[in-house]
Write a structure and sequence with these properties.
Bound molecules: zinc ion
Number of strands: 8
Radius of gyration: 21 Å
Helix content: 25-40%
Largest sheet: 4 strands, parallel
Structural class: alpha/beta
CATH architecture: 3-Layer(aba) Sandwich
CATH class: Alpha Beta
Distance between the termini: 45 Å
Strand order of the largest sheet: 1-8-7-2
Shape: globular
Order of helices and strands: HHHEHHEHHEHEEHEEHE
Number of helices: 10
Number of domains: 1
Length: 272
């Protein structure tokens, strides 16, 4: 009820007030959305362009079966550009997610980033947090991407059991502990699944197994989040997904906070 009232209030205010740029506050012209043209052109992009060995993919080398990774823009918390993310998360602005998703897709369409990806998985929120927010911001970004790239969005196969403390309030070295074991698969995954025996096999009772029939087995999934800081949440979720036979994982975020200079220098230096 509280979420519904907040949305109605937001819609009511939106009718009364002129649409303004979320970064500079100037009125938007009808063809602009969320950001004015000037602020969109000046956006602090990472310009990684999904290049091999970029600082984001290095975070995951040797830890999960990572294929490629990218972050779209620098998250600079003390600039007006931070409002793009903070309003998306805390000011009931799911439309910003759609806007960001479209920008990200436009940026990557010139690369082979989306090549072979079977499904987009927005990083799940805990039920309580999604209920209080009214939406999952990563899912909004996924919907924006989907408007330009025809890849299905999957939200049912992995869940988050509890909301972690805000990462910004957690000491860097405790962040990995903070998100440990908070994700789980909704469909159990076993490497081998026993199947019913045929009459012929019943006469010769040797164990019969078949490869896992998990819906995500052998798929290339794109794990999507709003911001990457240390990568602890994405890594925790990626490790759970890694239990699925044959799965390959790519990672995409709207923003990156801080510097990412750690991680092995070459993929071969890590182990899956
Ligand atoms: Zn502006």
């Amino acid at each position: 009820m509280r979420t519904l009232l907040r949305k109605l209030w937001h819609d009511f205010i939106g009718v009364l007030l002129p649409r303004t740029c979320i970064v500079c506050g100037r009125p938007l012209v009808p063809t602009e959305n969320v950001c004015c043209t000037h602020c969109t052109l000046e956006m602090p992009l990472t310009r990684y362009k999904a290049c091999e060995g970029n600082p984001i993919v290095r975070i995951f080398w040797g830890k999960i079966p990572i294929v490629r990774a990218n972050a779209f823009m620098e998250y600079q918390p003390h600039t007006n550009y931070a409002r793009i993310i903070t309003h998306l998360k805390y000011k009931n602005r799911p439309d910003i997610g759609i806007y960001l998703g479209r920008l990200i897709a436009e940026d990557l369409l010139r690369t082979d980033f989306f090549k072979d990806i079977d499904v987009i998985i927005p990083l799940p929120l805990a039920k309580s947090r999604q209920f209080s927010r009214g939406y999952n911001q990563s899912e909004c970004i996924a919907k924006g991407i989907q408007q330009l790239v025809n890849i299905p969005i999957e939200t049912t196969h992995i869940r988050r059991s509890r909301a972690n403390k805000k990462q910004t309030q957690t000491h860097k070295h405790l962040r990995h502990e903070n998100v440990k074991d908070i994700f789980s698969l909704t469909v159990p995954c076993e490497a081998d699944t026993k199947v019913s025996l045929t009459p012929l096999e019943m006469m010769n009772p040797s164990p019969v197994t078949t490869p896992s029939h998990h819906p995500l087995a052998n798929k290339h999934v794109l794990l999507l989040d709003d911001i990457i800081t240390t990568g602890a949440s994405l890594l925790s979720c990626g490790k759970v997904l890694s239990q699925i036979p044959g799965i390959r994982i790519s990672i995409l975020t709207a923003g990156v906070a801080g510097h990412h200079r750690w991680g092995p220098r070459l993929p071969e230096e890590g182990r899956y």
